[in-house]
Design a protein that fits this description.
mainly beta, three-stranded antiparallel sheet, 72 residues, single chain
Amino acid sequence: MINHRPIPPFDPTTPIIVALVELDEGPYLMSNVIGVAADPGSLPLDLELEVTFVERGDMKLPMFTPLQESAR
């Protein structure tokens, strides 16, 4: 899902990609996908992702970026 409504503390001009991510361990985690255009054409199903932690205030939140081909 691509959310175009502003949600604090995020930048209100940037769409947010909300995804249900299946972890290698089995459970699912609802999070954001960052580092990719907010365009359905650039978000295929089963896109391989890697976790990154983004600092928001005094917390670090898990978010996901597309897996880099060079990391394989």
